[in-house]
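Explain this one:

_____
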Amino acid sequence: MSDLLFAPMLTHIGLVALLYVLLTVMRAPKIWGVGANPDGTNPFAKLEPRVSANLSNQFEWPVLFYTICVILIARPELYQSIYLWCAWVFVFGRLIHSAIQIFTANIRLRGAIFTINFLAVMCMWFVLAMHILR
């Protein structure tokens, strides 16, 4: 059953791939002149730094998500269904967090969503720690 964690991991990888594609498209006017405004400016100038920052975010906290998923896939005897629930909460939270960071300047909402992501992964680690330490 621990192999079910592969689906949320793959979904997050899809998000990261999408962000790379978006960033490439948004940088095209500046780098290659493709899609530039008639005056030569980049129509994505305001969004590009947000996508770039969001892409960087995908390699910070998610490292702990991937680490626990790999541990659980490698040690299926430790798996419990709560891990899968938390993994999907994390991934859907990352999708929402990305949308908020890219398309709005609402830092308070982004922080609330990050807190949900944070707690989902912390819950996974807490359950694993309690299982191993008892």
Q: What stands out?
A: The two ends are 22 Å apart (CA to CA). The chain has a mean pLDDT of 94.
